[in-house]
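For the sake of transparency, this paper describes our internal protein records without simplification. Because each token names a local backbone shape, the row as a whole describes the fold. One such record is reproduced below, unchanged from the form in which we store it.
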Amino acid sequence: MWLRGATAGIIVSLISAFLYNFFFQEGFIKIFFFIFFSTYISSMIIVYGRQIKYRLRREKGTIKWFDPSKGYGFLERDKGGDLFIHFASVAEKDRKSLKENTRVSYTVISSVKGPQANEIRVI
């Protein structure tokens, strides 16, 4: 992943430096700093952009009921409606603390029987 970020950063830096040099035609030091900061900014966008995208697609809800002996339950989405929960889709550290009215974050996947909560974590 770092190689992709570095490559994209270098490409963005070279394009930015060319445009900067073409329009402003200033000294080498200013171009060097411009390349350095544009590489840094583009690399940060690539690295942290994935985390931001991951956090944006997670939803929040409340556990309606969950029976650990049966291994499944349901949660109520903040958007409205209910989702099925399977024991395997709950994070290991959160399995014991899954009770009624517990706030959780999750992703929604499509299964054979309809939408289902996945990657469930207690907030």
Notes: The two ends are 28 Å apart (CA to CA).
